[in-house]
Amino acid sequence: MSANEVIVHDDADILAAACAARLVTRLADAQAARGSASVVLTGGGTGIAILEQLRRSPARDAIDWSRLDVYWGDERFVPADDDERNEKQAREALLDHVGVDPARVHPMAPSDGEFGDDPDAASAAYAGILAANAGQDGGDVPTFDVLLLGIGGEGHVASIFPASQAASEDRRRVVAVRDSPKPPPTRISLTFPAIRAAAEVWLVTTGEAKADAVALALAGASEVRLPAAGAKGRSRTLWLLDRAAAGKLGSLTGSASQ
Length: 258
Ligand SMILES: O=C(O)[C@H](O)[C@@H](O)[C@H](O)[C@H](O)COP(=O)(O)O
Description:
By secondary structure, the protein is an alpha/beta fold. The chain contains 7 helices and 9 strands. The longest helix is centred in the N-terminal third of the chain and has 23 residues, at 12-34.
């Protein structure tokens, strides 16, 4: 697995714009090399701000949206039209505005969908979607080109919360999460084995409230205690921070890499 690289931007707006630009380049490169690309989206304020910046960017059409597979790292298990849905927020911020192929957009099921109010069945179905799309990558999960993850103040990524069962899951690729400390309480989440199938993992976060978690994760905290520490890409693990979120990295603050 790859080493952590840290890039610090001046503020949250610059971070969102720079991350959007980085996505354009990475996904267009993958399409040039292989014909198609894949991205895993995150919920949360920073993740959605990046999608909004991508929508506004004139460079966005360097991506062939019809040859992009879109997945989610986690989802809030609420009805399809609930404003809390990560899917709904991503569609409004970006996906409704570009020419994605609906068959290549892979949301996690809502609580009023075909699995009803059964997050275990919905999680198992999502694991099936990942396996079906793993194709020639081998294994049970596609080799995602980029997997985006926001970070919680206590160090969660996707819906893997500190000291939770999901943080110790080493077999299933997708799990149901109940009693999430961050509302809503019921969620569906990729696990570490699925996250680590990605070629590149980009951890994106902003604000002082994330500074402790960022510093502890980069100092080598355990992934059960601080799940962000366990999010790694096969070839790249990139931490994209603003100055406030990087504020407790000590001598690393403002540096371009670690
Ligand atoms: O479904 C969710 O709630 C998110 O996927 C979650 O993991 C989020 O990314 C972080 O909590 C950071 O959120 P902010 O960027 O809003 O702080």
